[in-house]
């Protein structure tokens, strides 16, 4: 089977799984369904590492051990991981909350895409991946993440003071894609003053950005690129608490969502700050960070046609402008009858996907497993189509849904994303 255009060259993604990766994906789905149905699960631990090779005897004429030739050392027995039981209660979740978190988080993507993010983040070890998913879902529940989707921006502004002001000032915004098709998030650090707004507002804005940014990622692309523009940075702009929270989001709650980070045009004073931040970073995240000194360095990742003209060699004359909410844009969310009908359809499809996945995860026959896999892919397509219909009834509109001065929007009615560059 040929892979879709732009499929990542590395394995581990939908459409590019190895045999072993598929086995681990099956195990994780089986564990998720099991814990949802029974309230607890005891996943099979990862295989123990291979025993160390025996120490060979020294060559003839040599000396070994304390008094002569050493006998071959027997390999130490390989450690055997003890199976551990996980329960929903220890994560503060019910079966219904687990189901809701799973599918609220899947959006219109292939459900495997979400699960694979956690598997890759935990090096394909099923138990840590399952634990990570459940902790992420617990965090989403405890922090009421859904309100950044169900509340309009004016409502969020009332609940979190100066929420809209952050969007209006252009402190951070998303525009265009890099050479790999990943959305670009620009962060203008000089505009940030930690004391100008409540910390809870900044946290909520970060979650809003993460959740909104997900709508702009089109499969097979799964990540975003961050450009931290340090032009004009001073120590008064530094906010260690926010840096910690952003790192935590990418490492624990939205794993495998980060492509690259470009820290651009950082002044000398930043290097003292960097010495504090660097130890907080997971090595995987740290490896994705690159310091760029010249505007032209950005062209290695971003095509000139897509790079803002405020940077040297950038050709896109786009200037960020916050598109304000439009009266009545969320009226469909008040249509309770249609909303209930569409939610019922989605529940039927999600249950069908889980039922088919349960069979697929247990099937050891290559032929029937492949057939069940095809059925899952077909249901995943139906889920995407149905989610596009449901979304306006359950999710408030963002500025990416609104039309600009030319009458165009970034997110189209069919769920696709169209970026327009002003070259």
Features:
42% helix, single chain, alpha/beta, disordered N terminus, Phosphatidylinositol Transfer Protein Sec14p, 5-stranded mixed β-sheet, two-stranded antiparallel ribbon, 423 residues
Summed up, what is this model?
This protein has helices at residues 19-38, 95-106, 111-121, 126-142, 147-150, 153-159, 163-168, 199-215, 240-253, 270-277, 283-286, 336-362, 366-394, and strands at 40-41, 86-87, 172-177, 183-188, 224-229, 258-264, 289-292.
What does this structure look like?
Helices cover 42% and strands 8% of the residues. By secondary structure, the chain is an alpha/beta fold. Among the domains are: 156-300, Phosphatidylinositol Transfer Protein Sec14p, CATH 3.40.525; 335-394. The strands form 2 sheets. It has a 5-stranded mixed beta sheet, with no helix packed on it. The chain has a two-stranded antiparallel sheet with strand order 1-2. α1 packs across α12. The longest helix has 29 residues, at 366-394. It is globular, with a radius of gyration of 25 Å.
């Amino acid at each position: 089977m040929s892979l879709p255009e732009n499929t990542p060259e590395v394995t581990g993604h939908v459409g590019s799984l190895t045999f072993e990766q598929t086995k681990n994906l099956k195990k994780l789905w089986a564990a998720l369904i099991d814990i949802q149905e029974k309230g607890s699960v005891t996943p099979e631990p990862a295989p123990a590492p291979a025993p160390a090779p025996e120490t060979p005897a020294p060559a003839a004429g040599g000396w070994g051990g304390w008094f002569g030739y050493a006998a071959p050392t027997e390999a130490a027995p390989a450690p055997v991981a003890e199976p551990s039981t996980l329960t929903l209660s220890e994560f503060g979740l019910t079966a219904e909350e687990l189901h809701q978190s799973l599918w609220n988080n899947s959006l219109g993507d292939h459900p495997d895409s979400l699960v694979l993010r956690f598997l890759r983040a935990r090096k394909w070890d099923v138990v840590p991946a399952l634990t990570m998913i459940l902790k992420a879902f617990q965090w989403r529940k405890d922090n009421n993440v859904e309100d950044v989707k169900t509340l309009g921006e004016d409502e969020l502004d009332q609940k979190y003071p100066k929420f809209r002001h952050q969007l209006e000032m252009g402190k951070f915004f998303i525009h265009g894609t890099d050479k790999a098709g990943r959305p670009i998030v620009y962060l203008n650090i000089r505009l940030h003053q930690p004391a100008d707004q409540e910390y809870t507002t900044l946290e909520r804005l970060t979650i809003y950005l993460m959740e909104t940014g997900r709508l702009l990622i089109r499969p097979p692309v799964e990540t975003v690129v961050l450009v931290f523009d340090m032009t004009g940075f001073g120590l008064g702009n530094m906010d260690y608490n926010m840096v910690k929270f952003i790192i935590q989001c990418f490492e624990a709650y939205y794993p495998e969502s980060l492509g690259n980070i470009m820290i651009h045009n950082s002044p000398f004073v930043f290097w003292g700050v960097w010495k504090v931040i660097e130890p907080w970073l997971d090595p995987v995240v740290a490896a994705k960070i690159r310091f760029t000194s010249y505007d032209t360095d950005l062209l290695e990742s971003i095509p000139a046609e897509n790079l803002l003209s405020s940077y040297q060699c950038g050709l896109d004359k786009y200037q960020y402008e916050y598109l304000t909410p439009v009266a009545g844009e969320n009226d469909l969310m008040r249509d309770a009858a249609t909303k209930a009908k569409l939610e019922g359809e989605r529940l039927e499809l999600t249950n069908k996907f889980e039922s088919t996945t349960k069979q697929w995860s247990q099937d050891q026959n290559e032929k029937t497993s492949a057939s069940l896999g095809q059925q899952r892919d077909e249901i995943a397509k139906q889920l995407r189509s149905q989610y596009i219909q449901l979304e306006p009834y359950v999710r408030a509109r963002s500025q990416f849904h609104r039309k600009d001065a030319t009458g165009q929007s970034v997110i189209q009615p069919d769920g696709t994303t169209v970026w327009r560059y002003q070259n």
